[in-house]
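look at this fold:
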Amino acid sequence: MANNAGRQGAGGGNANGNNANNMNEHVEFTVKAEEDLYLTGSENTIRRVTADTNYSCLMLKTQRFSSLFRHYAKYHGLRKDDLEYHFVNPLENEDTPESVQLQRGDIIMVRKKRKVEPPEPAADDTEFFKDMKELLDDEEHMDTLFLVHPIPPSGTTASPGGKRKMSSSSGGGGGAKGKKNDLDVNAIKREVDDSMDEDGNNGGSSGSGNDNRDNLIEIRAHKCILTARADYFKALFRKMAGENSSGQRVGTFRESTECVIRVEPYFTPKIVRLMLEFMYTNRIECLKASSKLEVGLECPHRVTTDELLSLLHLADMWQLRDLKRLVEHELIRSHMNVNTVSRMYCATDDLHAKRLSKSCLEFIMQNYREVTGSVAFQEEMKHHPDLCIPVLKAAADLIPEPAHKKARTSTGSDMGKDTPGSGTGGGLASSPVPDSDH
């Protein structure tokens, strides 16, 4: 038993010795530059290693390649994170010569780290937008109708930058009466309750309950698209009446059963179609086309500044936040100039367009003399005197603060002494610069 135990112990010692030898075994290989390696910066670029330069290395077979990456970069004056290495496969920090089967005399290639290619899209968006555009043009299955005036009636004014007025002949009773500037959701809502007459003539924003459709343009759409894209339409078409959290009765609207939306008279068919194009495709193609054309060129599909302001008005009234953001961006990018900035700025007061308001103020400050000297700006400010205050505040911020000079006090000990830079005496005129920063 003792001899057996001794032989077993000797065998165990040999095994441990072999493991130790494997751990201490080295492998000699070469790191070769696949291309010129550069140290780059914002001011200069330096070539550190020429292509095909060999660098001999000796590593433990169990040693991680992270030590090689660190050593090679430091030795050649390069940044470790700028390089990548590959043998038969790309090498990672945790790999070892043993794990990748690296043998004596093998070559590891090094090069500048490549940018990770973005993954290919799972589907082509072009086909999706094409399908949605075709859906917008297919009226066969549309179940919702917009009634739009071909041109604004003479009794209705709709200056995007000014106050919006409705004449007494526009109907609707008290739906919009007494409102300040904006027509909110309630301006086109009609509750269906016991007080409504049997014919359903409970007023509206563009006439009595019996619409005269002979002079109106019909634009069709899908209710499911409208309700999926906007909470406004989701509430407008709600069919279930109930009570809210406060216990108040929540009614339904006439549109929920008729599926007919009476558009306010100051929105033209073009504005409604632009809105629907965005609702279906999340973009407006004519904005891209008009932005690429030079100023002054005629284009039948160009959207004017006034039309964009009207579209911004519609987006604000129907609470279409994404459309509102797109229109603001287009106005800032392609339509803002000395002649139009006053209209845009005055429109922001009514349409709650904070991004547009901020950009208008910045433009006015950058072109202060040209803008304030224009007749258009002066006329707009007459109708919006309250908007002069932000302009004045922004102008005041541009005026530099007056420098407060400190009164110099002299003492008796200073009399007769030369001061640095005074031109007299042998004193130095500047302070010495320290050798190092601390």
Observations:
- Residues 1-12, 155-210, 293-297, 419-438 have pLDDT under 50 and may be disordered.
- The radius of gyration is 38 Å.
- The CA atoms of residues 61 and 97 lie 5 Å apart.
- The longest strand covers residues 26-33.
